Amino acid sequence: MVRRKILSWTHKVTISMFVAILLLGPNARADERHPESTAAQATEGEADRDCGRKHTQSSQQASPQEPGTRKHSLFSSWLHMAEKAQANQPDWLSPLATTSGRLKNEFRYDVWDQPSSAGSRIYQLGGNKGLEFITSSRTQLLVGVPTYTIDSASGPPSGFGDLPLMLKFRIASAEQSEGNYLLTFLLAATAATGSHRYSAGDSVLSPALAFGKGWGKFDAQSTFGANLPAGDTAKLGRQLQWNTAFQYRAGWKLWPEFEVNSTFYKTGKNAGDKQVFLTPGFGFGRIHLGRNLRLSSAAGMQIAATRFHTYNHRWMFSTRVSF
Fold first, then answer.
1. Which residues have a Cβ under 8 Å from the Cβ of 78 and sit 6 or more positions away?
2. Rounded to an integer, what distance in angstroms lies between the CA atom of residue 145 and that of residue 165?
3. Residue-range domains of the chain with CATH
4. Cα–Cα distance between 286 and 110 in angstroms, integer?
5. Is the dihedral of CA 117, 118, 120, 126 positive or negative?
6. Tens-digit pLDDT profile for the chain (323 aa)?
7. pTM for this one?
8. Burial 260-296, CB ≥16 within 10 A → b, else e
């Protein structure tokens, strides 16, 4: 039932956005010009100019627009609203593993590469990321791309994971000159749409708080939340997650970062255990590609710092296109 509600809600929002974008376009205003007279037709030219002036005055009275302006479509108004929403928050780069509390118009695609216990390598394409778009001055939606897992030739068959979704609600924020901080409520979810091997089998809700503060070129971003399965808690269990990223805005558009990613298992088969990863990495960007398009990327490795861990030495590569 939870899965059907999440998918129905997501489909309604996504379909409404794309229908509005496709149906409404910018309306242009045509300019009218009158031919100039020659010296040999001076009398007729004066009459033409008088007629032209009257026509121009009547056109200006009929239209409330000023010369050189255009009517804005719903799409361009949405872009303008999103630009204002992003201007009222810090301009930090998104960390590799810690979820950013910033509102963004962005498509992000991650690739993970890690060794398995059998000696092969596991590649995960997508990284539970996807399309993020701002829906109001305080909210943003993410419709993710299900992660596709590839094992070695001797491993199990490849397959898709569950569908990731997320709602962000910005509680408070300020740009760099006004305080350089943010506080955002996150409500993430996964709908159990994946193949049998790579699906959780039940939907999982993950509420969290994201907060961050910047001091000049340095910033710290953190999230604290929980994973709450809708069913089969004996297998999936409930976990608390605490992630913190430290970043520095260096020269040449480089963003060196260091993250601490912690998971505390409260129930389930790993109840009482915890795992902590240290994640050094580098971010790069944002590079202006034209109009509102900007490119950024990041790479790093998750290294287990506790005896108990479900994986280790995971390489993470991330590509983002903002708009």
1. none
2. 9
3. 78-322 (2.40.160.40)
4. 17
5. negative
6. 433 443 344 444 344 444 443 444 433 333 333 333 334 344 444 444 454 444 444 444 444 444 444 556 899 999 999 999 999 999 999 999 999 999 999 999 999 999 987 778 999 999 999 999 999 999 999 999 999 999 876 667 899 999 999 999 999 999 999 999 999 999 999 999 999 889 999 999 999 999 999 999 999 999 999 999 999 888 899 999 999 999 999 999 999 999 999 999 999 999 999 999 999 999 999 999 998 899 999 999 999 999 999 999 999 999 999 99
7. 0.77
8. bbbbbbeebebeebbbbbebebebebbeeeeeeebeb
Residue where the block lists tokens 């239209």: 63
Residue with tokens 């998918």: 7
Q: In the structure encoding, which two tokens stand for residue 235, read together?
A: 């297998």
252 phi-psi bin (left φ>0, alpha ψ -120 to 50, beta other): left
Here the tokens at position 33 are 């010009």
